Here is the input.
Amino acid sequence: MPELPEVESVKRVITPKILGATIQKVTFSDKVKIGKEIGKETIVKGTSLELFKERTEHYKIASVYRRSKYIFIEIENEQDNKIIMCHFGMTGAFFTVPDLSNIEIDNHRKHWHVIFELDNGLQLIYTDIRRFGELRALDELTEYPSVLKIAPEPFVQEAYEHYLDKITSKKFMNKPIKVAILDHTVIAGCGNIYACEALLRAGVLPTRTVKDLSQEERKNVFDEVVNVLQEGIENGGSSISDYYNADGEKGTMQDKHNIYGKKVCGQCGGPVEQKVIATRNTHYCPNCQK
Ligand SMILES: [Zn+2]
Here is the structure.
């Protein structure tokens, strides 16, 4: 599942290829169309397909930015501006290619869902094998309020104070620390993989409740989340199984994982244990983590 570093990598790959281009035409896959017809929103959410087209076709791409695990594409025409919001779910990906047939990874080519034809000869193609991702064409961000509740970006100064305030609130005080850091109202963009890695580095067991952690441990957890996310970005994200960032590129952060998906702890060489915490498969080292 793409987490903050993977989404940042996607943004960096697609931005130079789409910025300044005008969206000429938007096409949807049969799965998306049928989903709408039967009232089950598949990928394109919150608007009808007609309204999605109306809000995106003939608009120029003015900026692309990431917030947490979302990519926002700001678009404008002479009259107004809109925002395309994108979340990759489990297996979503973008390709910027002249044509669908140029996507070389079979599974992604077969599972295309939305094609944005640009006036620069490229197509921005959203593919999604498992279809948990979503695209929305918004008038403004207030139309999708849950985005406004996301914690500040982990790398900005106020993020630590925000995290402390949140974890010590009633909602999280009695929860396992792993549950708290996976919540994007606490820290933006930290998913399962990076949470496991950060807790190993901080030496804190994922099952410990927030109220049992010392101030120092709370700070260490935050600092290590920031560190692993930063390293993830520097390494182009993690590519697990058939995950690709954008245009079929793979990151290398998975080579630096010490605990996630491992049998042996990368720090001490001891056996890695697993436990399901809040429905997520959690890997930890009982020797390095207390
Ligand atoms: Zn260990």
Notes: Residues 11 and 237 are 12 Å apart (CA to CA). The mean pLDDT is 95. The chain has two domains: 4-149, 158-284. The beta strands are 23-28, 60-67, 70-76, 81-87, 92-97, 112-118, 123-128, 134-138, 273-277, 280-284.
